Structure formats: C-alpha cells, structure tokens
Amino acid sequence: MDKEAIKKELIDKSNNILVKYSEPDVVENISVMNMAAKTVFLGSLKVFNTEVIPNVIRDLEKDLKGYGQLVVRDQRVTPCCSPSYTHVSFNVTISN
After folding, report:
1. CATH of the domain spanning 3-95, picked from 3.30.70, 1.10.10, 2.20.28, 2.60.40
2. What pLDDT was estimated at residue 1?
3. What is the pTM assigned to this prediction?
C-alpha cells in the first residue's frame, strides 16, 4: 500500500468536492495513523454554506468508500470572531 499516494488522492478528492460547491476552504493535509493491523487516514473540511452539507457528505461517501472502511461526521462550529461553519470530518481505515 502506497500511503503517500493514497493521502494525495484523498486530499485531491476532498479539494475537488470543496471546489464543486464553491467553498473557500482548502484541505492541505490529511493525518495518517499507522497501526499494526491497519492504517487510518483522517481528514476534515470546513463547509460554510449549510445548504450544501448533505451533498458534500454524499460526495465524500461516494468518492472515498472504495479505499476502505469510511466514517463521515459533521458538527456545527460557531467561533466568536469569524463566520460559522460545519466541520465535516472523515476517517478511512485500511487493513494492512
């Protein structure tokens, strides 16, 4: 398994989804957790337009499910000094 190639593909696919829905955020990095039996890739996106959140989640699930076990979560974030957004996170678990 080429972890760097998978990481780059996940970043590219995440950014393509953000561009598709005209979101200003850019995914620059995805964390990789190496374990004895599996590798987990952790990524997150900021989505400001609440109307496109279901579409972003659907696209993530469609585009990333082929890599391994996928979990997608979302949580509304309201910072004190900047616009509110929804934090959409995902983790992809691949058996070694």
Report:
1. 3.30.70
2. 74
3. 0.93
